[in-house]
Amino acid sequence: MGKSGKKLNIGSYNTSVDEKGRLMIPKAFRTFLEKEIVISLEFENTLVLRPQNEFEKWSGLLLSMSYLNREARILQRKILGNSMYITIDLKGRILIPKSLLEQAKMKKTVQVIGTGNKIEIIASEAWEELMSEDKISIEEAAEKISENKKNKD
Fold first, then answer.
1. What is the 8-class DSSP label of residue 4?
2. pLDDT band at 87 (very low <50, low <70, confident <90, very high)
3. What own/partner pairs with CB < 8 Å and gap ≥ 24 does 58-61 have?
4. Which one has a higher pLDDT value, 136 or 92?
5. How far is CA 125 from the centre of its chain?
6. pLDDT at position 1, please?
7. Which of 78, 96, 98, 100 has the fewest Cβ atoms surrounding its Cβ within 10 A?
8. What is the reported pLDDT for 2?
9. Is residue 143 assigned to a domain?
């Protein structure tokens, strides 16, 4: 269970975006989301869905970065400038804005991934590429994170 007492979003589902840009949210994720949610274009060309309260936490983190720092301004503009409020219809679908679909390079098939307190949507080809990358293994990633944490302590 997450801090809020709700189950964490986990799992991965292969699905498709229809010609109108609609995506059926997997049933397992619908209890986490509210009727109105926020969709954002984020890292590795993923679209991220968050309930409003989770988006407020995320945007608070972004806005806490000094606006005097160029990288902070870029991050704020690119993420907040590519975020929109959307609603889930009665059938459990969302309409993804065309501009976000294009920027995320999504055509038809996508992977919908539960990543704890958010839901990520990524083009199936990009997902397969991320999962098959030889550049860094799960063990190497864990080791690097552990080293970074030690260096901060």
1. T
2. very high
3. 59/83
4. 92
5. 16
6. 44
7. 98
8. 47
9. no
Query: Which residue segment(s) compose the domain that 14 sits in?
Result: 9-124
Domain count, the chain: 1
Question: In this structure, are residues 116 and 9 in contact, taking their beta carbons and an 8 Å threshold?
Answer: yes
User: Diameter of the chain by CA atoms?
Assistant: 50
- Identify whether 117 is part of a domain: yes
Distance of alpha carbon 101 from alpha carbon 122, whole angstroms:
10
Residues 6+ apart with CB under 8 A from 127: 110, 111, 113
43: domain CATH number is 3.40.1550.20
Q: Is residue 70 part of a domain?
A: yes
95-135, pLDDT tens digit by residue? 999 999 999 999 899 999 999 899 999 999 989 888 876 56
Residue 142 located in a structural domain: no
